[in-house]
Amino acid sequence: MNEVPARSKRRTVGRARLLAGGVVALVTAVASVAMATLAHADLSGPPGTTLKAAAERSGRYFGAAMGGDRLNDSGFLTIANREFDMMTAVNEMKPDATQPNRGQFDFRAGDAIYNWATQRGMKVRGHTLAWHAQQPRFWGSLNGSALRTAMIDHINGVMGHYRGKLYAWDVVNEAFAENGSRRSSNLQSTGNDWIEAAFRAARAADPGVQLCYNDYNIENRTYGKTQGVYHMIKDFKARGVPIDCVGLQTHFTGGSSLPGNFQQTLSSFAALGVDVALTEVDVTNASSSQYQGLTQACMNVPRCVGITTWGVRDSDSWRGNENPLLFDRNSNPKAAYTSVLNALNAASTTVPGTSTPSGSTSPSTPNDPGQPGVCTATYRSAGSWGGGFQGEVTVSNNGSTTLNGWTVRMTLAGGQTIVNVWNGANTGSTGTVSVRNAAYNGSLGANASTSFGFLANGSTSTAPGDISCTSP
Ligand code: G3I
């Protein structure tokens, strides 16, 4: 299998940044690894007696989806706290919830779930940023470049709020049709590159979080839709479009069931160099054999990092009439629960990078004494399309003392106009422009770095010239 272990992949990312941005960038890369790190694997330990303990033996997680109304449901919370170590918000981090009106973000419902989960040591998957459904109402009156800009603004706004806090984001959800072509939607109508534009913006907005594509009916390797998603990820990897993971929703409800080639599907995605995760599992009548089979398939694929069920009890399910979850309406575990637990405990592969060979140590932070107060800026193209481009500027403190505020100056080529800046505030949009730090990223410790991004219109994507950084 042509697989790139997760830890190696992240080291490769670190090396690329090292070349571009100097030793300081490695600090950012190390921090990113720390945030996305899963449980330490130890297959020699005793079997886990909860879903999360059993999953953690192999460096994996076991998650559930919860709606905000479940925060007042003690039956739900008791099981969730005991059994799960990853949470996904059912609706509360979706575009209509997080940006009800243009420029007015509302994170109260999402934060309530985030806070409940993280206060109990769980990680959180963000769901979702760009989707044809549950869009902000104002997107309905936009199209073309205006809608594209609104999508990018949304990604920046939401990911900026959760920057550094989440394990993964479902950046794009359900963008393919059953036959493997793109699903028609208002986002698709902005141009076929809308998915990669979303992923590039996402990387710039939060460089440390795992960026996933998420979809249903992609569990059978030979199915048209699975092939469509597979070829998109392959193309993204070949062209350097940032993508870290694919989420297979794994709804074996509504007439679907576990395909015989499920494990091959997982390993073929993994062989493209992405993590795979089962993100919204439910199974009609909680068939033990299907739950056992899907869990075992994941355990057999090293880069299958975790499983999330779409709810906890049947009473939490969007398809409750199919009784598809691991706990019944009285909070009792079903036979399927035991089959999942056993399959988790029987895992023979661990997630790459989660086992520490005996005698080895954790990566250490490079120690570069540097010079006091040295601020540098490095430009990187994050993509271009007919009539525009996206840039990312990494701002680094090469010194040994903290910088309090920074300003980057750069000169755009003729005809280029900045239309949007995130993680910074610009003065001027043509010719020589300056970008000052945002309120939350002006303080840069010794050897630390941050980045801002921008979108520009223009007939060329020539990189800005005369780029410099100053700090008061
Ligand atoms: O909150 C309102 C409530 O005020 C109103 O009275 C009621 C009347 O219908 O609607 C409530 O909103 C509903 C919301 O769930 C909260 O319950 C929406 O109508 C309903 O459409 C919405 O459904 C969600 C669905 O996504 C929408 O696409 C489901 O809860 C949620 O489980 C489901 O999740 C999706 C994943 O995001 C993507 N994959 C498929 C999965 C299942 O459909």
UniProtKB/TrEMBL annotation:
Lineage, top ranks: Bacteria, Bacillati, Actinomycetota, Actinomycetes, Micromonosporales
Residue ranges of domain GH10 in the record: 45-343
Domain called CBM2: residue spans: 368-472
Pfam families according to UniProt: CBM_2 (PF00553), Glyco_hydro_10 (PF00331)
Family: Belongs to the glycosyl hydrolase 10 (cellulase F) family.
EC number: 3.2.1.8
Protein name (record): Beta-xylanase
Source organism (scientific name): Actinoplanes sandaracinus
Compositional bias ranges of the Low complexity kind: 348-365
